[in-house]
Amino acid sequence: MTFNMRLSTVAVIIALAVFGGFALSVPRAREIKDISPTQTLATTTPTLTLRDVYKKGVHTISGSVTAPDACTTVSAVAAFASSTGPNILINLTMPPDTGRCLEMPTKIPFSVTVAAPSQVPIEVHVNGVHADTTNP
User: Fold this and answer.
1) Where do the H-state alpha helices sit in the chain?
2) Could you tell me which of 127, 69, 131, 136 has the C-alpha nearest to residue 100?
């Protein structure tokens, strides 16, 4: 055998080994789990902390909400409602994150002010869902 023939044979054997290894490492269609569109992710209400400071008929309510990542934005709106019993209603909106961000729970601060009598209960909703609060 000549040197060129030996070199060609070794090159073909190496190419077949690389191709065979690749073919064996690629998952088959039957090996991939089927994710049906009817499966939904469980949603949980984030953790909230509130601090209420009352001065001259105005409540300044500050706190933080635990968001799924640091890229999440939070907007807060407060209103005094007296139709169903006097209470302060705070609506927090956290739109779903559309960008790439490290999914690490992050506390995001917010603050609102509202004119209301003292000792009025505070009710908080996050994306329309009632949320439990804790005082720091």
Assistant:
1) 3-25
2) 69
